[in-house]
Amino acid sequence: MNNVFAALPEVDADANRRLHSRLVAAADSAGLLDVAYRTIDSPIGTLLLAATNDGLMRVAFDCEGHDQVLTTLADRVSPRILNAPARLDAVAHQLDEYFAGRRSAFDVRLDFRLAAGFRRDVLRQLQHIDYGKTASYAQIAAKAGNPKAVRAVGTACALNPLPLVVPCHRVVRSDGVAGNYRGGTQAKLTLLALEARQR
Amino acid sequence: MTLPPFELVVEKHGPTVLRVCRAILGYHEAEDAWSETFLAALRAYPDLDPSTNLEAWLVTIAKRKAIDQHRSAARNPTPTAELPEAADAPPDGYDELWTAMGELPLQQREAVAYHHLAGLPYAEIAEILGNSEAAARRASADGMKKLRAIYQGASR
Predict the structure, then answer these.
(1) pLDDT at position B82, please?
(2) Structural domain spans, chain A
(3) Where are the beta strands (DSSP E) in A79-157?
């Protein structure tokens, strides 16, 4: 008899899945699920969605490294983070519709806690750029109340914690070039083309 | 040093804690103990010192939950009609293991599970059991000896 514990599998995947769902449900009803997350597939790669009780807080691209993003959220927001898809069902569904060309605006609560001050003002302005339209960095700077802060607008877009839902991809350079994007320039071009097609 | 997202803690340590609970508590009680352990851990998690040995911390909580469970089971014996929701039937050989474990004194059972299933060092086990490192080592060795004897006796 080599292993007395052979009857206890090292990993019982079914049991652990079941216990994980139970934990998520119990944590949610005890108010301990500070950050819920899930991933979804999209034409621009796998997206990570994370929400607090106040609303959607973070949308992250593949190229950002989802593990790294979750580690940062654990540090900045709360380490009480669980893979809990239910809280993100609505936004996941709306993103699917968006990528299918059937949705032009998002209707979900947003939690802006990861952007403060001028950066948050910029994000508020971005919400007013309609589907299929674009604005220049300079125009957004003026609307956010600081016409000289063009570079700061660029930074605010580059660090937008809620890309897609807060449409920083609709901000382009004054010379018409798309410019940089947190999810990569190619992703930005894909989104602009999608919206141009559906208009 | 910062705390990893709790999801990673569940992913990394969940299976081991379940094994330990199954070895000490029995197959069905183990799942309730696991659930209570991880909910309590989630509650306390943000205040945890990031250098803590997470496995030892979780096992300590599980031990406390297991004791609570024993106490409340002794106080309010549940009618047999209300057996906890049976997940699945235990795997082959589990009943034999559980019967054998049941013949060990609780401290030996715990020492064996903490060392051979959770892989905790005896210094940590001594803290959980509230005894010395030498006593923890002895409890585990005696427990393993007894388990082997039971198994060999049964296979002859």
Answers:
(1) 45
(2) 13-99, 117-198
(3) 81-83, 135-136
> How big is the A-B interface in CB pairs under 8 Å?
109
Which residue on chain A is closest to B8 by alpha carbon? Answer: A82
A13-99 and A117-198: same fold? Answer: no
Q: Which of A6-10, B6-10, B53-57 has the lowest mean pLDDT?
A: A6-10
Which two structure tokens, joined as six digits, stand for B119?
């892989």
Å from B117 to nearest chain A CA? Answer: 8
**Beta strand segments in A9-162, E:** 35-40, 47-52, 55-60, 81-83, 135-136
Query: If we measure between CA atoms, which residue out of B54, B35, B34, B36 comes closest to residue B45?
Result: B54
Using an 8 Å Cβ cutoff, are A67 and A73 in contact?
no
Classified by CATH at the fold level, domain A117-198 comes out as Arc Repressor Mutant, subunit A (1.10.10)
**Which chain B residue has its CA at the smallest distance from A15's CA?**
B87
Coil vs helix vs strand at B150 = helix
Per DSSP, B78 falls in state P
Q: Go through the domains of chain B in sequence order and give each one's CATH number.
A: 6-155 (1.20.140.160)
Contact B5 A70 (CB under 8 A): yes
Q: CATH number of the domain at A13-99, please?
A: 3.30.160
pLDDT of residue A199: 60
Owner of token pair 């609780």? B106
Residue that the structure tokens 């993100």 belong to: A88
- Give me the amino acid identity at A189: L
Mutate which of A1, A3, A19 to test chain B, going by most B C-beta atoms within 10 A? A19
A120: pLDDT strictly greater than 70: yes
Confidence of residue A106 (pLDDT cuts 50, 70, 90): very high
ipTM of this predicted structure: 0.92
- Looking up tokens 């769902």 gives A21
Q: Give yes or no for residue B83 having a pLDDT over 50.
A: no
What's the confidence (pLDDT) of residue A115? 96
Which residues of A have a catalytic role annotated?
A: 168
Task: Band the pLDDT of B1: cuts 50, 70, 90.
Answer: confident
